[in-house]
Give the backbone structure.
Amino acid sequence: MRVLYVSKALVVAAYRDKLRALAAHVEPAALVPARWRGAEPEPDDDGAAPRPRGAACRIVWADVRWAGHNHLHLYRRPGAVLDGFRPDLVHVDEEPYSAVTFQLLRLCRRRGVPAVFFAWQNLDKRLPPPFGLLRAHVFRRAAGAIAGTEAAAAVLRRAGYCGPLAVIPQFGVDPDRFRPDPAARAEVRARLGLGPADFLVGFGGRLVPEKGVHVLLDAAARLPAARLLFLGDGPERPRLEARARRAGLRDRVRFAGRVPSLAVPRWLAACDVVVLPSLRRAGWAEQFGRILVEAMACGVPVVGSASGEIPKVIGDAGRVVPEGDDAALARALAALAGRPGERARLGARGRARVLERFTHERIAAETAAFYRAVLDAVRGRAEGGGP
């Protein structure tokens, strides 16, 4: 089975491990933006031109119009890629209301190639023009859909999608990359000027209001022993740095900025706990919280707010606190700071949860099985004379 995987997310090197995992089940090729948000795709381990580690997979790095606009970007001449690769199925790794999903499904329709799309959207929303029309077209033309969570699947059904549907996370983690690493822990902590007994709390993600990073800063102000490490960047960074100074946290906070995805495991290994304090906003609730499964794979205990999908991702492998409650978050962190044995127990439970549910291999196997089911259904309809 030849599958063309279309995804802007594959500019991130760690996500391209999914292609390696898919290559064990299908013959994949990928269509990926050559630039996104004004940046080149991340290189792989050896620093050469980006390619999936250990996978025999062709990647087409293509020009896009409106690079950096999640739901408005379009590929230039994607039909040539379809004609050159001649896939049996196309997987458009984008929401059904995205312009690029509409673009690819129209091209697939003309060529008689079935296509599936992906959805994270976990809240019912009235889409403004033209996105509602794009989604309606995609719903009619798609051969199948993959939702990242049960909540996203329910949103698709309520919006009118009636076709084949599977619930599979978009990306997993490579447990060989994301793993407990005592050597990396010691090296990074020494670089940060931390001793073995210092309590380091980490966060990873975009510095935007909905991630609730200010709640973590307020919680840390209640914990004189806590040190904070922020991996990521975003428009909130100046305000967060000012808030840290006002709270007297300047010497206890490190803003590391954007970290290459393949370097993230070393930073996570240095943490004693990782926190995702997301807050629900109008039209948005945390759709997954990837940093949680990355930290869990590294054997690091996690604490998250009771927002969106966070409690379901954590399960019994961490702690969940009310969203926006800095006092509750401070109490949860204080309890873990004083109990290294409990941190070790939760860390082991979190890694076991990732190995069971969230590896690239597990997600690739489930995705390939859905591809086969979709193609079987398409062929069955064709043999029966259906539409």
Q: What stands out?
A: Residues 360-383 form the longest helix (24 residues). Residues 46-55 have pLDDT under 50 and may be disordered. The two ends are 22 Å apart (CA to CA).
